[in-house]
Amino acid sequence: MSFIHDDFLLSSKTARRLYHSFAKDEPILDYHNHLPPKDIAEDRQFRNLHEIWLEGDHYKWRAMRCNGIPEEYITGDASPREKFMAWAKTVPHTLRNPLYHWTHIELKRYFGIDELLNEKSAPAIWEQTQAALARPEMSTRGILRSQKVRALCTTDDPTDDLSWHKKCADDGFEIGVYPTFRPDKALAVQQPEAWNAWCDKLASVSNTDINNFSALLTALEKRHDFFHSMGCRLSDHGLNRCYANFSTEAAASRIFDRYRSHRTKRLYPEDHELLATHIMLHVGRLNARRKWTMQLHLGPVRNNNSRLAKKVGADVGCDSIGDYPQAESLSRFLDALDTENSLPKTVLYNVNPADNYVFGTMAGNFADGTTPGKVQFGSGWWFVDQKEGMEWQINALSNLGLLSRFIGMLTDSRSFMSFPRHEYFRRTLCNLLGNDIEAGLIPDDDELTGSMLKNICYANAKAYLGLEVS
């Protein structure tokens, strides 16, 4: 039997029945990823496995560094084939890391390859996949069709002109390619030079003179309106923790003036937190008004390795789990919006599994009888989007909330090879439920459990997010 077989991860007869009967054939709504929309608009044809698999995958880069691979063969000047061979050399050392599962399920689903990847098998796999990638059905649009993707949401700065999203729509491409509003740079006053340059860019694209704090908020609102016109229905925010330093708009304006005028050389953490609180509340209100969903990705410590960050850049595999206190500030931020009836649908993503119960219980505090699962405890994220982390998240959500209202999995990926992450999640979910049924913990009732599975895999996200999707 091949390693990736029909019943991979399914340890009981009931788990296998649930997966094959209810989960396997559901389509995909990938509502959060970092795919480049340009590649979809141009229907990019990848030339080799490096381009489609290794070009931007910092999960793999991190593993290669841990295996002692020189940076030349990761993000450096080595040839694409040399970089792939360095990855193949690393793969056997990833045993029990989720990368071992993902590597082989992706080779199986995209290329029908059952052979384990290692230094010996790598040359033949390189040649075989290079020939396969030249086929028209392996272009970006072909991949989306073959993986049964109905819609996806990229991650986009408010200053983006969204021209590639427009091209996809104008082409009549049947799969929805929607932007997500990610205004993190608006908060980054602690880096005044970069923040001012970004404000200048925002001023230009919004046709707004950003000479005061009110003008900044107006410019963001204009871009929010533009994103809405382009089909956007989600914002996304990558934060260490929620901001909840409430003060007057006059105080926020004074801070804005100091940093925008370049008058201050000293940075105060409380300045950043106060300004960020006001901006996040502003975006939350805009989301509520437009009936968008707000995604809060909370908890990482980013770019720990300053040497590598200086050499290679940000987001290259040198991030880790943070141990920030989350509960109080998250509660105060959500409550501030809820108090003024401006809390949008919200998904909370936790990167620190120690906080699963904090996030799981926080989500239930703000149900208001308007939207099932209005505040969601989102899927396992980043370091916990593997089998064990998914199980932890599913169990916490089940114990503390309503698993049946969960909007399911996403890839959070930069690679077009990552859509089998949905399959990986579905198999994990079916294995948990199947084992519960066989243990007598939940009824053996296909109408009950099967319909819940279908909803979690696709229908819940479709109903919750309000995207135009078939």
Characterization of this structure:
Its EC number is 5.3.1.12. Belongs to the metallo-dependent hydrolases superfamily. Uronate isomerase family. It comes from Prosthecobacter dejongeii. It is an enzyme of class 5 (isomerase). The mean pLDDT is 96. The chain contains 19 helices and 9 strands. It has 470 residues and is of the alpha/beta class. It folds into 2 domains: 13-45 and 138-465, TIM Barrel (Alpha-Beta Barrel); 46-137, Orthogonal Bundle (uronate isomerase, domain 2, chain A), CATH 1.10.2020. 49% of the residues lie in helices and 8% in strands. It is globular, with a radius of gyration of 23 Å.
Total helix count? 19
CATH hierarchy: architecture of the largest domain: Alpha-Beta Barrel
CATH top level label of the largest domain: Alpha Beta
Elements, N to C (H/E): HEHHHHHHHEHEHHEHHEEHEHEHEHHH
How far apart the termini lie comes to: 37 Å
Unreliable parts:
none
What is the average per-residue confidence, as pLDDT, rounded to a whole number? 96
**Strand arrangement across the biggest beta sheet:** 4-5-8-9
Strand portion, in percent?
A: 5-15%
Total domain modules:
2
Radius of gyration: 23 Å
Question: Would you report the number of β strands?
Answer: 9
Outline type: globular
| CATH topology category name of the largest domain | TIM Barrel
Helix share bin: 40-55%
CATH superfamily of the largest domain: Metal-dependent hydrolases
Pathway: Carbohydrate metabolism; pentose and glucuronate interconversion
Keywords: Isomerase
Catalytic activity: aldehydo-D-galacturonate = keto-D-tagaturonate; D-glucuronate = D-fructuronate
InterPro entries: Metal_Hydrolase, Uronate_isomerase
